[in-house]
Amino acid sequence: MTIITEGFLGDTAYSVRHLSMQDLVDIEALQEKVYAALPDQSVLQPLSTKEFEEILLQERMMLGVFVDDDMIGFRALVEPPVDAEHLGYDCGIAEADFPRVLYQEISNVSPDFRGFGLQKKMAKWSMEHIDISRYDYICSTVKPGNIPSLKDKFSQNLIVRALKIKYVDKLRYVFFKDLTATPKTYEFQVMMDMNDIAGQQQLLQDGYVGTGMESFENQWFVRFEK
Q1: Kindly report the CA angle at 120 between 12 and 168, in degrees rounded to 5?
Q2: Per the count of CB atoms within 10 A, which of 40, 60, 177, 198 is most buried?
Q3: What keyword terms does UniProt attach to this protein (predicted)?
């Protein structure tokens, strides 16, 4: 298969390519390894075999990172079904434009290769390969307190449009990015404790969006602007 890019993690050489159904066993094995190593397993919603198959059947939506023949990371985009849970509703996207929405889905990095910024590298590679003739918007969800994933989204200039219950009973930030828009300038800024759920929800209702995060005295704060 065609190699997207190659490089080194320290002294270890890696390669990146798009994944196919032939990679499913390795994908699920890596997901299981990553999930087992998490101190808080609630931060990751593992995907089922069926969900992985649906992504892999959408051509060029999933990339993998390999050291020799061993998969050490993967990241997926997905064209979501249009249903009542569509994140477009949370982000103010017109229903007619829902077919032009992509989700940033699951992203896993082997515990053996953390500390090399691989999460951020995979984000860059996957965003570079989006077909902008077909898609205008990126949406995603992240659990409050999942610091690596939150940093990942903010580093790509995704913004928080909502903080609400998704997937039946899970509290999630809803992230959004318009691929066609120029960067926005904001007039007002408020820093809010990430643990203050009601306060953040009120700011979002008042027209603010989450644009970043900072740590003060071992506590994380989200930057809201409008």
Answers
A1: 125
A2: 177
A3: Transferase
- CA-based torsion, 122, 90, 27, 38: positive or negative: positive
Rounded Cα–Cα distance for residues 53 and 199 (Å) = 39
Select from 15, 106, 102, 212 the least CA-distant residue to 224.
Answer: 212
> What domains lie within the chain, and their CATH numbers?
3-181 (3.40.630.30), 184-226 (no CATH)
Sign of CA dihedral 202, 205, 206, 211: positive
The pTM of this model reads 0.90
| pLDDT tens figures, 43-101 | 777 899 999 999 999 878 899 999 999 999 999 999 999 999 999 999 999 999 999 99
Supply the pLDDT for residue 60. 80
Q: Which two tokens stand for residue 30?
A: 């890596």
> Residue 215: is it exposed, middle or buried by C-beta count within 10 angstroms (0-12/13-18/19+)?
exposed
- In the predicted model, is pLDDT for residue 13 greater than 90? yes
For 107-138, the pLDDT digits (tens) are 999 999 999 999 889 999 999 889 999 999 99
CA dihedral 124, 129, 131, 137 (to 10 degrees): -20
CB 223 within 8 A of CB 191: yes
* Residue 29 DSSP code: H
